[in-house]
Amino acid sequence: MATTQELGTSEVDKKTLRRVTVAGSVGVFVEFYDYGVYGFLASTIATVFFPKQDGTAALLLTFSIFGLTFFVRPVGGVVCGYLGDRIGRQRTLVLVLMLISGSTVAIGLLPTYAAIGVAAPILLLVLRLAQGFSAGGESAGAMSFVAEYAPEGRRGMLTSLSQLGSYASLLLGAVVTTVLTETLGTDEMTEWGWRIPFLLAVPMAVIGFYIRSKLDETPKFQQLRKDSAPARNPLKETLASAEHRKAVLLAITIPILNGTGYYVLFSYMPTYLNKTLHFSVVQGLLITVCTLIAIIAAIPFAGRLSDRIGRKRTIAGSAFSLVVLGYPCYWLLTQGSVALAMIGGVIMALLFAGHTGVIHIVLVELFPTRLRYTAYALGYNISTAAFGGSAPFLMTYLISATGDSAMPAYYMVLTAAVTALAVLAIPETAHSPLKES
């Protein structure tokens, strides 16, 4: 394989570009596979790791652990970003993948509450915190890695293909969970079957390590090393600049819809359909699978569209559409019909694709190569922690407290409105080179 030094910074052969895109996807896949499986198995995890006396309290504790892990993501993002901006994207992403994978596998090996009491949820929390720390460095690094290889005019398309990894992993998690639940039944799933989805991270880690370890550093980062030294303290440099502080603020506000869409529309959806709307576990998972298939099909079109008409138009169109149609789609979910629920979920997935398929390239293009990993990770992870990770807990609590099953709809409409307004503040970057400094 030709190296980037031989090819130069503007010429990357198609084979290398394919491998880079796969390498970007594989870590994102492993990261979100765990989040998806945890969300899909939330009811089972609540039974396995907490006392059984109060089902709602156990579910709230399960989602509180889910949410708490997001608050270490900004820390992980800054630490991994520092490494990525100092020693390079490729080596950092290999380390991040190993930490994510190891934590996921370890969860599958944990003893239960029945076996060791309160130590079980404590160990679960520790491992989830490790996952949150490592996940803080994954998306920003992976998307920057792909974008810094991508040729002009194709950055949106190629980063959207990497984003597919997150939804493909959710789809796999939903399919695995559905098949196991149908095959083993509730009792066997609670007894031991819940471990299988987590242990599947072993082969994923092996494949991901092999792919990422075989790639060169990005052309943009190599050029930075050649032209000038990498940033000595990328976080300090980011916060010292008014321009970069503004960009970090935009990196917090623009992805607000992404956290809501991903963690409410997909990860929380099976629990919402089962516990709140009283669909069966399998029906809830099947509805979720349909929405995932829809968004996986739509994301590449969103990425390609953003390369043609621009990032702002694509994201703003997605956000404004969800402001208008978010509540009617959730209303379809509440009608008790699997078919109507599928229609509502699929419509929201197709509309949301215009945001989630484009958001990461928008964030990449906000920052220069010198600070990109750190600044991107800082803003994106603060946004995800505040508006994504806490969403399942918040929705469960608000529905329990108010009895209003439309809470997820209100939340989606609100966050879509914030994103729609925030994206108006950025310049169009689809047809401009990546910032170098």
TrEMBL record:
Signal peptide: none annotated. One of its GO terms (molecular function) is symporter activity. InterPro entries: H+-coupled_symporters, MFS, MFS_dom, MFS_sugar_transport-like, MFS_trans_sf, Sugar_transporter_CS. Residues 20-430 form the Major facilitator superfamily (MFS) profile domain. The keyword Membrane applies. The chain crosses the membrane at residues 57-84, 96-127, 164-180, 192-211, 247-269, 281-302, 314-333, 339-363, 375-397, 409-427. It is a multi-pass membrane protein. Keywords: Cell membrane, Membrane, Symport, Transmembrane, Transmembrane helix, Transport. One of its GO terms (cellular component) is plasma membrane. Its main location: membrane. It is found in: Cell membrane. May be a proton symporter involved in the uptake of osmolytes such as proline and glycine betaine. PANTHER family: ALPHA-KETOGLUTARATE PERMEASE (PTHR43528). Belongs to the major facilitator superfamily. Metabolite:H+ Symporter (MHS) family (TC 2.A.1.6) family. This is Putative proline/betaine transporter. It comes from Saccharopolyspora spinosa.
